[in-house]
Amino acid sequence: MKIPFFHKPKSKEELEVIRFVLKQFAYKPQRISFFVQALTHKSALPDAGQHAANERLEFLGDAVLDAVVASFVFQKYPELDEGQLTKIKSKIVNRKSLSAIGEKMGIRNHLIYSQGRSINLAGLEGNAFEALIGAIYLDSNFETAQKVLINTVLRKYLNLNKLLEEELDFKSTLFIWCQRKKLNLSFELVNEQFVDGKAVYEMEVQINRTSYGRGKGFSKKEAEQAAAKETLALMGEI
User: Fold this and answer.
1) What average pLDDT values come out for the chain (238 residues) when binned by 10 residues?
2) Per-residue DSSP letter, 219
């Protein structure tokens, strides 16, 4: 005879956390204790219980987020170099961006903290967001956390194209613009001459084999930047 297994009934607060995580992350928690801890700030706990705050989960979530975003931008932008990829990743995972995501999610409505103290709620939301990512990772695995971040968070709460265009140089911005519209982009050398013993290059932007902006510079990279800037201006993007 099998003995029936009864789950401990969820409290009202736990059910609210489950609904929140399900709505904002499209993920159903299995071990609710991870998620309650992710939303708990140390100000709500006595000194002896500080280990139950969200700081350790925040540390874990930060590492998961960093790895997922690095992989995401690496695969999404194959023509960008290491420096450009670093700029993109930093723009996505910086404190200001994470706090904005936390605010849009309404994390503060579920935070457990001491309301009798003067606390920067925006900062708490960003930290709790990272802790929630850590909770999802512990509650499932890296692949699931990755899917949640890419399919839900990045697409729902970030205007990635706007972020990138604000951060990157003209050539990178043009590349992303063409990629978004599925257009082929290339830079062609149209002229090279020497002025006072220095080489001056003239590059031309070609999009789907149609000529657009031109630019000059003392290096090909400098000329490409000038050509990309002129092209973006012609497109009305700057």
Assistant:
1) 46 91 95 95 76 91 96 85 85 89 92 78 90 97 96 83 71 87 94 89 96 94 93 87
2) S
